[in-house]
Amino acid sequence: MNRMLITGGAGFIGSNFVHHVIDNTEYHVTVLDALTYAGNQSSIESILGDRAVFVHGNICDSKLVDRLIAETDVVVHFAAESHNDNSLNDPRPFVDTNIVGTFTLIEAARRHGTRFHHISTDEVYGDLELDDPGRFTESSPYNPSSPYSSTKAGSDLLVRAWVRSFGLQATLSNCSNNYGPFQHIEKFIPRQITNVLSGIRPKLYGTGNNVRDWIHADDHSAAVLRIVERGAIGETYLIGADGEKSNLEVLQIILDGMGQPSDSFDFVTDRPGHDLRYAIDSTKLRTDLEWQPRYTSFAEGIAATIDWYTEHRTWWENDKQSVEEFYSAQGQ
Ligand code: NAD
Ligand code: TDX
Questions:
Q1: CA 287, 290, 295 angle in degrees (round to 5)?
Q2: What is the pLDDT confidence band of residue 19, given thresholds at 50, 70 and 90?
Q3: Element (H, E) at 220
């Protein structure tokens, strides 16, 4: 197995994964990406060449998808509409890409008998109470809250059904919130870092008490590669690094790391239906596939992420005004 098709490889996690695969394996990589507002080819420009090619196209294009999957040994499927706030504003592209796009890919993978890995999110399980001692496991019931998470849940169920009904050679993973370089500035951590760099006060939704379980994107990449190489067909693996923090705690780490006073932010209108808490139990992945996270200090990971956005202004600067206009129109 040496040819890998990576969908969504110009996005945040996909581009980190492309770098990880080129740096750590001998795969020849084809990236398929539609370059939506969230895609940025410059994130992978430095590694395009002999071992990595870029195809500009849509995962809903069944002819293109069939041709590319016919030429590959394994598909790793990251492409998605990924932002909850956008899904509340306009759900349509989420249904198209997350559901119809995934359907298009698994149909081609079953025609060609191709190994398939589906990337998903812990949000398919809904949310937990702040004081719930439990965490999500592979057997937690599906209970998604938003148009984004419901379309990801739908895509997971399609993949599971294709495994059972058609013998699709697939694995699935559901990961917690990622941070690191190349993340679009609409998302929480890069929005706050680039706010400070732009002289805008950071914005915290609601009370700031909502909890997310943070993992560095490179740890996510290593886990996905491990599942592609050693995961059991038909199985789901939860990926998480024991990184639970409230949004207020995360913002305080960012403000501290950027030399800002701890009260230099605004509370803004909450997200409708805002999930309270996510928490992942990744025992199965750690035990069965012997994976461990490498980024164990969140403060150090955030410091490196602050440095990255500080040093790569041209990567994000052009998007800043339109992102902030979108948010301020909703009181956020
Ligand atoms: P992203 O929005 O940064 O990137 C998505 C990429 O997919 C972009 O490059 C975009 O151009 C591409 N794309 C979108 N629609 C497409 C289409 N129809 N055809 C081809 N390409 C298309 O997203 P991300 O944060 O990198 O998330 C990647 C995957 O990981 C998603 O499946 C997401 O559900 C999952 N995930 C994300 C997180 C997180 O914290 N960001 C956590 C767990 C799981
Ligand atoms: O400005 C903000 N202020 C704020 O308080 C933004 C943009 C967000 N938030 C809050 C909302 C969430 O509680 O921060 C938390 C994180 O928000 P997002 O970055 O939008 O992530 P989330 O909604 O948790 O979803 C992310 O993790 C799971 C990814 O975007 C999804 O693709 C992934 O599936």
A1: 110
A2: very high
A3: helix 217-230
- Domains in the chain: ranges and CATH: 3-178+214-239 (3.40.50.720)
Q: Does 99 contact ligand 1 (Cβ within 6 A)?
A: no
- Give residue-wise pLDDT tens across range 83-124: 999 999 999 999 999 999 999 999 999 999 999 999 999 999
Whether residue 122 lies in the annotated active site:
yes
C-alpha distances in angstroms, 47 versus 74, 99, 180?
20, 30, 18
Strand partners, 235: none
Alpha carbons 96 and 117: distance in angstroms, whole number: 19
Give me the amino acid identity at 83. Answer: H
Any idea which ligand is nearest the CA of 87? 2
Q: Where are the alpha helices (DSSP H) in 25-146?
A: 62-70, 84-89, 92-94, 102-112
* Ligand of minimum distance to the alpha carbon of 36: 1
Among 50, 35, 43, 55, CA closest to 18: 43
Q: Is residue 98 lining ligand 2, measured as CB closer than 6 Å?
A: no
Does the model's pTM come out above 0.85? yes
